[in-house]
Amino acid sequence: MKIFTSSCELQKYTLELKRSGKTIGFVPTMGFLHDGHMSLIDIARQKSDVVVVSIFVNPTQFAPNEDFDRYPRDFDGDVAKCAEHGADVIYAPEAAEMYRADASTWVEETVLSQPLCGISRPTFYRGVTTVVAKLFLLVQPDFAVFGLKDAQQCFVIQRMVRDLNFPIEIIPAPLVRDADGLALSSRNRYLSADERARALSIHRALLAAKARIMADKSSIKAAAAEAAAAITAAGGRVDYVDVLDCETMKYPEADAKKIILAAAAFFGTTRLIDNEIFEI
Ligand code: AMP
Fold first, then answer.
1. pLDDT at 6
2. Confidence class of residue 156 from pLDDT cuts 50, 70 and 90?
3. Which atom of ligand 1 is nearest to the CA of 183?
4. Nearest alpha-carbon partner for 179 in 200, 193, 198, 208
5. pLDDT, tens digit (0-9, with 9 covering 90-100), for 115-141
6. At 237, is the secondary structure helix, strand, or coil?
7. Distance, CA 19 to ligand 1 centroid (Å)?
8. Residues 87-102: pLDDT tens digits?
9. If you average pLDDT over every residue of the chain, what do you get?
10. How far is 162 from 85, CA to CA, in rounded Å?
11. Which of 32, 82, 137, 169 can pair with 87 through a Cys bridge, CB separation 3.0 to 4.6 Å?
12. Ligand 1 centroid to 171 CA: how many Å?
């Protein structure tokens, strides 16, 4: 497995791979890898000749009051897991390698990024789209795999790729959970045992709301409110529980096909997100 920290060297390498006719599958991550990330690498492995994983805690997607400085890191553990799952290349730049001190260009999606996490984290998606666009130009992937754990992010990236004509297929990957239902996340590391037990309320509340909506489409608002109340009762501080049309990321009209029921809540100081996507 090759490890690059230099953008120029990585890009030289991937451009040579492309010239020699190899397909490249790409999995962007912020590291502290878990089985959710591994499922993305497995999908990339099946579809492409060469699998590139990036490990980069992207400063531009964190607001000043967020957890950039304490975001968990375990580079050696990450390298071992990537090797185990057959990744060929790791790209792990320093922030100063990724961003010039006087960088002044952003890539911004302006519609799908607005609701849900876009409300409480207004500069988050701009940071994500900018770094992913840069990573796409460096890695030159044919395929890029994004987890539906971060479903809104996946939809925003798909829209960016469509709007800016990136020659890349975005592959959405299913959300991976722990056996007890908690969505796997690097941030779960922050939770105390008590907080972790309480945080199970998020998935439980989403499943109950989903069942209610499937039984009665007109109950969307009540089901979301009930889910928020259940998470609050378990000790969570709810950021949002909302139901949107996956296509538009707006309130579902009568003809909506696929909807996302999404939640974000703090347990202690840890902000967790989760969602259920289903047809109605
Ligand atoms: P992160 O390192 O949290 O930025 O995530 C990197 C990629 O892994 C993103 O595409 C995430 O959606 C995906 N991912 C993170 N957690 C999970 C999970 N539990 N299931 C599926 N994909 C995930």
1. 98
2. very high
3. 19
4. 200
5. 999 999 999 999 999 999 999 999 999
6. strand
7. 30
8. 999 999 999 999 999 9
9. 98
10. 30
11. 82
12. 13
Tokens of 126: 């701009």
C-alpha span between 86 and 145 (Å, rounded): 15
Catalytic positions are: 37
CA–CA gap between residue 197 and residue 221 (Å, rounded): 27
Pocket of ligand 1 (CB under 6 A): 29-30, 36-37, 39-40, 146-147, 149-150, 173, 175-176, 183-186
44-73 burial, b at 16+ Cβ within 10 Å, e below that, comes to: bbebbebbbbbbbbbebbbeeeeeeeebee
3-state secondary structure at position 215: helix
12 pLDDT above the threshold of 90:
yes
CB 204 within 8 A of CB 227: no
pLDDT computed for residue 280 by the predictor: 87
Q: Name residue, tokens 């989403």.
A: 206
Candidate of 37, 161, 185 to mutate for ligand 1, largest count of ligand atoms within 8 Å of Cβ? 37
